[in-house]
Amino acid sequence: MGGFELGAAGLVEGGLLMVFSLFVRDTGVPRELGEFLGDSAGYPEGFEDRDWRKVSPAILGERIEATDEERAEMGIHYTSEASILKVLNPLFLDDLREQKKAAGDSIRKLTALSDRVSQIKVFDPACGAGNFLIVAYKEMMKIAPVPLSNFYGIELQEFPAKVARLSLIIAMYQCGGGQDERSHIVCGNALRMSWEDVCPLDGEVYVCGNPPYRGSTWQSQEQKEDLRHVFSGRAKNWKSLDYVAGWFMKAAGYGADSGLVSTNSICQGQSVPILWPLVFETGCRIHFAYTSFKWCGDAGVTVAIIGLSR
Ligand SMILES: C[S@@+](CC[C@H](N)C(=O)[O-])C[C@H]1O[C@@H](n2cnc3c(N)ncnc32)[C@H](O)[C@@H]1O
Question: Is 96 helix (H, G, I), strand (E, B) or coil?
Answer without folding.
Answer: helix
